[in-house]
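Minutes, project check-in
Item: structure for the 213-residue chain
Input as provided by the requester:
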Amino acid sequence: MNLIDKNTLIKILGCIANIMVENRDLLCELDAEMGDGDLGLTMSKAFPAAEKEAIESEEPDIGRLIMKCGMKMNAAAPSTMGTLMSSGFVFAGKGLAGKTELDADDFAKFYTLFADGVANRGKSKTGERTVLDTLYPAADAAAKALSGGADITGIASAALTGAESGLEATKEMLPKYGKAAVFIAKAKGKIDQGALVGKLFAQGINEAIASLA
């Protein structure tokens, strides 16, 4: 695949939404051990809202459409993770504004912009056992795949592999934020629930792209 248009974006958001819904109970279970226990509910509201916005919007600018999807996510799920993920979309959309299609370079850039948007809003960095520990490895892998000549399909696959490696690495990290920081002993040897969201995000993108390749 060489280009992503609005229909592809709708497919991507739909795949992510389905994956979040399918993993709702798992996300809630993991979150209950470290947080409020509502992570799965939040994500299963946020991404379907983004998909609905993409379907119904008549915005031709794909960057601006991504921004609008982010804003709709925040309205549908105004929780910590909902706000973080929506911020990723808004920041990425701003960086890609003015385009009606995304090429491989734009697509790889999307991963980094998205992660930067989340990092800027959350005031955190990698290594602190958060969603960034899957988003940035995905972005780094996407950039390396692009530099190696990969097309959009190859970039999406590489990004998922990067996210999977990042998720595994969170087992050895200690939480620093929120309620999870109170339960440090429970975190050892377990994946971070926020990082799992980032991995599922990359998984949804890859599944959508692979199905269209």
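Outcome recorded: The domain at 6-212 is CATH 1.25.40.340 (Serine Threonine Protein Phosphatase 5, Tetratricopeptide repeat).
No further action items on this chain.
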